[in-house]
Design brief:
It is built from one helix and four strands. By secondary structure, the protein is of the alpha+beta class.
Length: 70
């Protein structure tokens, strides 16, 4: 999934925060009692800015908020 939006580079700090968010989502998904509810259909980290939306190799989507409009 690639959706080109703004051409703003992602800093190392931003990359670390995105990674931390993705790891938190995966940890949360592991705690879900699948006898009571389904697994999440997808996991997504929403960022303030970024060059484009993409799916990480671990399946987590990273989407800049600007890509979510119309």
């Amino acid at each position: 999934m690639i959706n080109l939006c703004n051409s703003i580079s992602i800093s190392n700090l931003d990359a670390k925060l995105i990674n931390d968010g993705a790891e938190a989502l995966k940890t949360l998904a592991e705690t879900i009692d699948t006898t009571k509810m389904k697994n999440p259909s997808f996991m997504m980290v929403v960022t303030a800015v970024g060059p484009y939306a993409y799916q990480r190799p671990d399946g987590v989507f990273v989407v800049p908020i600007g890509c979510m409009k119309d």
